[in-house]
Amino acid sequence: MSIVKLVNVTKRFGGITALRGISLSIEDGEYVCILGPTGAGKTTLLRIIAGLVEPDEGEIYIEGRRVNGVPPERRNAVYMFQNFALFPHMTVWENVSFGPMVKEWSSEKIENVTSETLEMVRLGERRDAYPSELSGGMQQRVALARGIAAGARILLLDEPFGALDARLRVNLRTQLRSLVKDQGLTAIHVTHDQEEALMVADRIVILREGRIEQTGLPQDIYNHPKSIFVMSFVGGANFLDGVVSRVTGSGSTIEIRGGLRIRVSDTSNGAGERVVVGVRREDVSLGKSRKRGFNNLVGEVLDVMFVGGSIEYVVRLENDMTMLSRILLGEGSMAFKEGDMVIVSFHPSECHVFQYPERGLLKEIEAI
Amino acid sequence: MSSRLVVSCTLVTFIIFVMLPTFYLISYVFLRWDEVWYEVFANPIIGDENWRQIIKALIFSFRLSLSTVAFDLIFGVPLAYVLARKRFPGKGLLEDLVTLPLVIPTSGFGFATLVTWTTVAGLGGLLGMRSGLISLNAVAPFINVPFILFIVHVALTFPYVVRTVETKIQSIDMTYEIASRTLGAYSLTTFRNILFPLALPGIFSGAVLAFARSLGETGATMIVSGVSTTASIAIVRWASEFKIPTAAFMGSLLVFIAWVIILPAEIYVSRGRRAHSLSFSVPMNLTRRIIRFERFLSRKLFFIKDIVPLVIVAVAVVIPIAVVLNSVILYWSADPYTGKIEGGVVHQLFGPSNYFSHLLKATLTSIIVALVSTYIATCIAIPISFIIERRWYGRIIRTMLKVPLIIPTSSLGLSVLLLWGSSGLNLVSSGIWMIILTHIVFSVPVVVESIIASYEGSGIQMYEESARTLGATAYNAIEAVSLPLIKGGVFTGFILSFTRSLGETGATFIVMGRDLTIPVLVVNMVEALAIPAALFTSTYLIALSLVMLAIVRVFTQR
Amino acid sequence: MPEVKLVNVTKRYGRIIANDHINLTIKDKEYISVIGPSGCGKTTLIKCIAGIIEPDEGEIYIGGRLVNNVPIEDRGIGYVFQNIALFPHMTVWGNITYGPRVRGFPPEETEAIAREMIEMIKVTARVDAYPDELSGGTQQKTAVARALMTRSRLLLLDEPLGALDLKVRAALRYELRRIVKDLGLTALHVTHDQEEAMSISDRVVVMRRGRIIESGRPIELYMRPKKLFTANFVGEANFLVGEVKLITGEGSIIDLGDGMKILSRDRSREMGERVVVAFRPEFASLGRTCENALAGKMTSIIYSGDLVRLHVELPNGDVIVVKRSLRLYEPIPRAGDEVTVSVPPENILVYPYPERGLHRELSLE
Fold first, then answer.
1. Counting beta carbons within 10 angstroms of the beta carbon of residue B223, is it exposed (0 to 12), middle (13 to 18) or buried (19 or more)?
2. What is the pLDDT of residue B126?
3. Chain mean position to CA C121
4. Is the pLDDT of residue B331 over 70?
5. What domains are defined for chain A?
6. pLDDT score for B301
7. CA torsion angle B486 B489 B491 B495 (round to 10)
8. Do A194 and C282 touch (CB under 8 A)?
9. Which of B154, B166, B102, B84 is nearest to B312 (CA)?
10. Tens digits of residue pLDDT in A144-195
11. B462 at A interface, C-beta within 8 A
């Protein structure tokens, strides 16, 4: 049974439509990431589920019950703010016992639940500390414990790592996921960090301008992006625009700027159509010689950069377009330096072909 | 839902106790226009003499208030900058000194200034003269208002400009100034181009507050005004002579003027960013010259802005208080110049005139008034603050709350008298209960401002939402989370309003009947020429307020 | 020309030493990044160079000139702020031309430089737009243009991308580097994001508790970090505790306990010394591919795009991470499978065991 279900949810703020007809259902125990750029409506969606904002249209069901108009305290969904919103005038203990207290449980039960949850997040020793005395990571654990102690079945996480240092974020991701999984909770996690979403989610929902652009398993989204936007937002890619020049049974040929031709396995577009070819940076390799069965283009290395365990090459092709190639360290491939002439190779089956977007290519991939 | 009930009750209470009195005066003038017309413009005996007096008093008040505000701005803005941006030892003390005139009772303070400048016990005596340094009616050059009156008004309004501008500058991100300097602008150039335009709304509202305060000041003005009559003093005098229609007409004129000033100011300030983008087109060589001049000032003469405001604070605030203290000691047992015991503090307090028993009685009245009115005001202010923060009409309420803060208190007193007294609803007669009703009116905005200051920036909404999703009801969340978070603001507001009530003179004069408060007693003593007794009472009053200020200081620093 | 030199720069705040005898030279046209955890003193350092903070001790030279008592406005620097700090009451054009205006440049010259700068930095916004009408990325580009308008050759970047979306951040990295290189500027970039620092700069300086721990080219810092802290901070790594058993011509053999041994080419440690062995997850491969082979059990698998992270539990209970590219089309074992992990000896780093204990040394909080 789905624990959270949205049907055709729409929300407007003044003249701006934050969400347009969102329908989504989330299974019990699922870890879902809602991924999208700033202003996509992610936080509004989360606040609507929590009951902090009422939708203009559409229905919300939690545990099978329609909850439109039901106040937040009767929804069993705990909202975790980006900066954790621990009550500054209460100790760790008082914060965690807040939920049980307002629910007027017996004092013995409050005691038990609170100490159990605090032990679970390994903060039993800091029970008398005030939130301001704790590090960011500890505050996050207190916030989590506070939610769990309140008996929440659903955790609504709004950019839970946004307030932490970049390096620390990476460490805490897996911790958060395993805590949620161990407790058998359902998590809805909002983020704009695609790497974070790929690593922690069971399922990813991609939001863009208030609409769901694609939903699916992380690997499916990465391997089969439905649009240029998704491919660019999740993982990033090289995009080459061109025109289909020939279609055969085994694939088609696309002519890009400067008369260069690319073979792709995809055959969904007819000859003469304007298309965009997307190739992941990781799928582009550099070498000294042409590879059989691959697209091989000649280029010059413009810049070499070092990105988190990988080397990224910026290569200028003969037609002045640039392509990026990313190679994981330890793969033992050849090293190149600025000014080297190289052969850029990528396989036709790794080319994703999209129709040329109405609003122009730049609009779909431009992040700035 | 019950929350709707709470909101409606709060709003009704608020309208009856706070808003109604501030508007009643105007409606009174309209309802009894025949009477007013007869008294003011067409009196069979004196003709329009009252109207001519109204005009005279208004013109004098405007001249005084405008020159006061101009002076405040010239010296207050640099001081506000220093307080907002620099860290130096003694900063807390300086801030307290600037704020002091806000909390010390104005009649006591006015008397202190009077003694300092015009009597042999003050600066004159210290400089070896046989009389005061200047005479009471000496007129300051250019602005053509009595010098003493001007000093008192500057001291009393200076804090409004300094504190408002200081708060505004603190809210402006310092990186703008640093950015400007990394781009090559000298400090003064940076001030002119960046800080000044950004702080303009704050400077503007500070000036409006100071202007309104000066226009409505009664307590100190009554003591130092000599032969001049300001608009608010005129109201008190007419009210005590039972020339109610004339007083009401003057009072509603002042309320109207206050409105005319505050509304555009509020709209201007709330219009936000681009409203204050100033651009002048100046020829290039002039710009260069300005920049070179600013470079010179930035380098060489920067200390001027640090020193001059300090001197003003010292002269206008510190010296009078010190002189009063000194005088009480000098006059303790006898007049030090004539040697008569009748001129000593002890004789006047415990002698035949027995001012001490008056003082005791007045103290009791003052404290009951301050406690009761502040308590009721706080009870109204807490829910009102929540309504202001959460309802779409909050902004309107907040603007309306500015009215009791800036309309002259004598107008306010008159309004309360007319509303609740025998000529209106006839529910309360002059005396302690009417004083309380009057004080509630201006105490509510004081407490509300203080609560809102601690509310905003504390992220209460987020904490409350968090509490709600953890299972707390709306009421639970307010009780367990929001109230503890604004506790400091409530407390500070309570003390500020208590002190304000303790020192209020203008309105109290009109509604007190036979129940004297301490500040009124000071005025009476001065009018009865019982100077040593007035010295003692002023000191006593100032000391009481200083204790209050100290409590706030300790509490807010924690 | 703008070579920056810091000699023994020290800044204290009460008992806290924010900068402790910092010595650093930034060469002309060098792009240098300073990284470190929150509170390591990197922000104090850049502010000292700009003149926003006066150091307690030490000298700062910019282009050979001692600038200790030179006010901010005369240091000839361009400064970019984390919170962007475009003047909210001025348009894009007003912001960009602010520097030349307050320095009294002739209007024609100001206009010419501004046009050139807008072109160069690709400020796509309308010049009459106000800052709050622009996206974060465009705002920051405008701020960079503003900083460079006074023709300063030294660009100080104080967490310039910190306030932006990740996606925008990644895109602006390239832009920043391109601008600095195309204009031949000297740049100092402060950030807490090690990946950003590694990808953007010629040299990276690692700071911790007010001191410079080490500095070097990004690839050197990644492949051969001299300090355990750096190995942990500049990227993911596996850490195992052991004891040096034998030093041979090939390198040193380290005993990890429970019968596990590992060979490193590093011979700098002594026999019997307690050490920490570190290696990057991407240098580990599955199967026995070299002499260093550790047997263990797969506990979990995490996919992220083209990468997969395999968590392998060793016989002593330690869990190591192996990072593989899916493009290699290797068979991926399942959780519970017995696997062998190999790491080439040249990728095994060895450090003395930290006095404060391994856990605390690795803690970033």
1. buried
2. 73
3. 24
4. yes
5. 2-232 (3.40.50.300), 233-365 (2.40.50.100)
6. 62
7. -170
8. no
9. B154
10. 999 999 988 899 999 988 877 777 777 788 888 988 998 899 999 999 889 8
11. yes
The answer on pLDDT for B300 being more than 70 is no
Report the CATH number at residue B186. Answer: 1.10.3720.10
Task: Write out the DSSP string of A324-347.
Answer: EEEEETTS-PPP--TT-EEEEEE-
B2 with B72, same domain? Answer: no
CB of A130 less than 8 A from some CB of B:
no
* pLDDT tens, position by position, B172-186: 889 999 999 999 888
N-terminal to C-terminal alpha carbon distance within chain B: 39
Helix or strand run (H / E) with residue A264? strand A261-264
B391 confidence band (pLDDT: 50, 70, 90)? confident
Identify whether B16 is part of a domain.
yes
Residue B361 belongs to domain spanning: 1-22+350-558
* ipTM at complex level: 0.83
If you average pLDDT over every residue of chain A, what do you get?
A: 90
Distance CA B305, CA A329 (A): 61
**Residue A325, by phi and psi: left (phi above 0), alpha (psi -120 to 50) or beta?**
beta
Please give the pLDDT value at position B284.
Answer: 63
In this prediction, residue B275 carries a pLDDT of 43
Q: Say if C117 is an interface residue toward chain A (CB within 8 Å).
A: no
How does pLDDT run across A100-136, given as a tens digit for each residue?
A: 999 888 999 999 999 999 998 888 889 999 999 988 8
Q: Where are the domains of chain C?
A: 4-230, 236-362
Q: In this complex, do B182 and C132 lie within 8 Å of one another by their Cβ atoms?
A: no
pLDDT > 80? residue A97:
yes
Spatial distance between the Cα atoms of A308 and C233, rounded to a whole number of angstroms: 11
Nearest-CB residue to A72 (from B459, B463, B468): B468
Fold of C236-362: OB fold (Dihydrolipoamide Acetyltransferase, E2P) (2.40.50)
Stated pTM of the model = 0.84
In angstroms, the CA A104 to CA B471 distance is 10
Spell out the long-range contacts of B479-485 with Cβ–Cβ below 8 A and sequence spacing 24 or more. B480/A98, B480/A101, B480/A102, B481/A87, B482/B386, B483/B382, B484/A89, B485/A88, B485/A89, B485/B454, B485/B458, B485/B460
Length of chain A: 368
Inform me whether the pLDDT recorded for A368 exceeds 50: no
Q: Which residues of B touch C103 (CB under 8 A)?
A: 184-185, 291
> A219: which DSSP letter?
H
Alpha carbon B344 to chain centroid distance? Answer: 33
- Please check the confidence at residue B25 and state whether its pLDDT lies above 90: no
Residue B527 has pLDDT above 90, yes or no: no
Q: How confident is the model at residue B277 (pLDDT cuts 50, 70, 90)?
A: very low
Q: Edge-to-edge, what's the strand order for the sheet holding A274-279? A: A261-264, A251-256, A238-248, A274-279, A352-355
End of a domain among B330, B363, B384?
Answer: B330
Say what the pLDDT of residue B310 is: 80
Report the phi/psi class of residue A264: left, alpha or beta, with left for phi > 0 and alpha for psi in -120 to 50. Answer: beta
Count how many residues are written for chain B: 558
Any chains having at least 3 CB pairs less than 8 A from chain C are A, B
Q: CA of C208: how far to CAs of A336, A366, B530, C91, in Å?
A: 33, 36, 72, 40
Q: Which of residues 23-62 of C touch B (CB under 8 A)?
A: 50, 52
- Report the alpha-carbon distance of residue C284 to residue C341 in Å, rounded: 6
Do B4 and B128 lie in one domain? The reply is no
Give φ, ψ of C75 to 5 degrees.
-90, -10
**Top-level CATH class of C4-230?**
alpha beta
CA distance A149 to A113: 6
pLDDT band at residue B270 under the 50/70/90 scheme: low
Q: How many domains does chain B have?
A: 2
Residue with tokens 């003003």: B312
